[in-house]
Amino acid sequence: MGIGMGSDRDDGTRVEWREWGQEAFDEAAEAGCPILLSLTATWCDHCHEMDEETYAEPRIAANVNDSFVPVRVDVDRRPRVRDRYNMGGFPSTVFLAPDGSVLTGAGYLGHDGMRQVLDSVRTMWDTKGSGAGRVPRPLREDNPPAGELTSAVESAMLGQLSEVYDQTAGGWGQQPKFPLPDALEFALKRDREMALRSFDAVSANLLDEYDGGFYRFATDSDWSGLQHEKLLDSNGALVRAFANAYLLTGKDEYREPAARTIEFLTTTLWNDAVDAFANSQPPGETDAHSLDATDREAAAEPPVDDIVLAGPNALAIEGLLTYAAYTDDERARRYATRALETLQTELIDEGVVTHAHPDTVADDAGATAPLLANQARTLSALTTAASVLDPAVLSTATAVADATIDQLRDGDSFVDGPAAGAGLLDQPLRPLDSNVALADALLDLAALTGDDAYRTVAREVLESFAGASDRFGVQIAQYATATSRLLEGPLVIAVADEPGTDLHRAALRMADHEKVVVPGADAVESAPEVEPGTARVLRGDRSSTVAETPTELSEAVQSVLD
């Protein structure tokens, strides 16, 4: 059973929450008081705890209602609000001036902490008013430092990974421990031993052995302190990562976690009403995760947040199609195809991706507007579908790319969405992760269509951040992956054959997970010359001889890589 369609859950607090929007800011301006912005998520256990232990306390609720305009925002439904006001995790408790600037903020607050903060903010407001507000640094520093792209970008990221690698427990960093699928995939090609030890740590510690799917993260360096929520976006990305580890190793110990996660996604998180994936499953009764199989089967199943979001669905589609490409798994292919159909027909209009399926959200959080994260993830899913399933989806992919370039490009990089809305939504934000994801997807699109204009845009995006690339953390490993693919040229396998033939399937299984397979290449004007039923391999200005069989194709790939 789903949690429901509303913008906010029925939290049971005594606080008179307003919806996010200009009305709340106008109310605060008219009353001459600050806004208390509560950022929460349906899957967030600590958010529920704060509702039950802090906001439900009568005196605190009365204090909030009397002295502030309280606004509640679900971060999945309104990612642009999340990205401007997040205090480092959820819940985030943020105090704003009526102009949207930040007075102060914190994370989880218990009774005493909340009383102290409320008193402090009220004193600050009485003393300085809106003059105490500040605009967060990412919104003040509008233009990222540009620079030249060199092989040093890849080397620096590998050095960063090696420096923070946990030799004892696996993974990167000490605490908290996140799975970091982009870092896993980057290291898989450049330091396989370090990568596989980290894959092992993720599967041993974050995989739910009973129900399948990966937990979000662990709080401690030894992977203890599991946070038991399961999110569609991280699970979709991890399916792809583990499928790629299986491609390069051939070992079932990497295939099986992907298979178990696909089972979770296509059962527990499948929203049959709209033929797509639901967004998340919260922890439920935390103790249930420590029960044995028999007792756990009798335990209540945690509810699912049934909202269908475009970006996380795109990640899931890409993960399932990647797995299907390497295994011929029919279940993965079937569910990916169904979700892809929903994405194309219900959530894309003239290249603009709708954030949420309108049948699964009750407020305007699903309104049609291009958000960079959705555009980038959807483009990546469509290029993967063109490579694995059917080149015909390239028409949708080019529409998404063109709409993104037309509506969100500002200079050489991209802003996260339209410069409009309440609070600080009218301030431009250039998220590095989404810019990089878009650039990487544009490289695939250029290879699939033969249109170098997309490659040029990708280069300009990566160059626009290059001046700070030596400071990027391991969370942005995809920047180094994309830069490497741009400078060296991705391995391109042009197959003049229909998807699903032996030659096409062999191309998909060639052991380079950063490659691009172009089926039906004889129909692409700028593709290398290939006769029907043959294939050719390219990288940069290098080109192989023609291959007619899977064995010859393997030899052709090796000849280009040598």
UniProtKB/TrEMBL annotation:
Region named Disordered: 128-147, 526-562
Bias-annotated ranges (Polar residues): 543-552
Gene Ontology biological process terms from the UniProt entry: carbohydrate metabolic process
Classification via InterPro entries: 6-hairpin_glycosidase_sf (IPR008928), 6hp_glycosidase-like_sf (IPR012341), Ssp411 (IPR024705), Ssp411-like_TRX (IPR004879), Thioredoxin-like_sf (IPR036249), Thioredoxin_domain (IPR013766)
Pfam (any one): Thioredox_DsbH
Residue intervals of the Thioredoxin domain: 1-123
Protein's name in the database: YyaL family protein
